[in-house]
Amino acid sequence: MKCNNKRNILRKVIVKVSLERIDMQERETVEASLDSRATESVMSSEFARKQRLKLKKIERLIYVQNMDGSFNKEELIEYTVEI
User: Fold this and answer.
1) Mean pLDDT, residues 59-66
2) How far apart are CA 54 and CA 81, in angstroms?
3) pTM of the model
4) Which domain holds residue 32?
5) Out of 34, 57, 59, 64, which residue is the most buried by the measure of CB atoms under 10 Å away?
6) Count of domains in the chain?
7) Is residue 3 part of a domain?
């Protein structure tokens, strides 16, 4: 990714996270991206379905903004999930 000034350096940090579903006594370790500039917490709908989380369709799509400030042309947020 390109940066216009040295103070706006973009970094991507990947960590392993252990997720546990207490109701089903299941645990899975996944990789997660940390972003200190994030305004919301998100996960892919594919991942949510795999974890058997109940997806709820939202009325208005939410556009995703990339770390560099541009809008993501591939992904829109279409669902919410309670965890």
Assistant:
1) 85
2) 6
3) 0.51
4) 13-80
5) 64
6) 1
7) no
Grade residue 2 by pLDDT with cuts at 50, 70 and 90: very low
Per the domain annotation, does 1 fall within a domain?
no
Answer for the pair 20, 26: CB distance below 8 angstroms, yes or no: yes
How many angstroms separate the CA atoms of 27 and 38, rounded?
A: 26
Give the start-end residues of each E strand in 11-55. 13-21, 26-34
* Higher per-residue pLDDT: 29 or 66: 29
Any domain includes 7: no
Structure-block tokens of residue 58: 């939202």
Task: Report the DSSP pairing between strands 26-34 and 13-21.
Answer: antiparallel
| CA-based radius of gyration for the chain | 15
Give the pLDDT score at 9. 54
Does the residue 35 lie in any domain?
yes
Q: Is 52 left (phi over 0), alpha (psi -120 to 50) or beta?
A: left
Which residue in this structure is represented by tokens 């103070």? Answer: 7
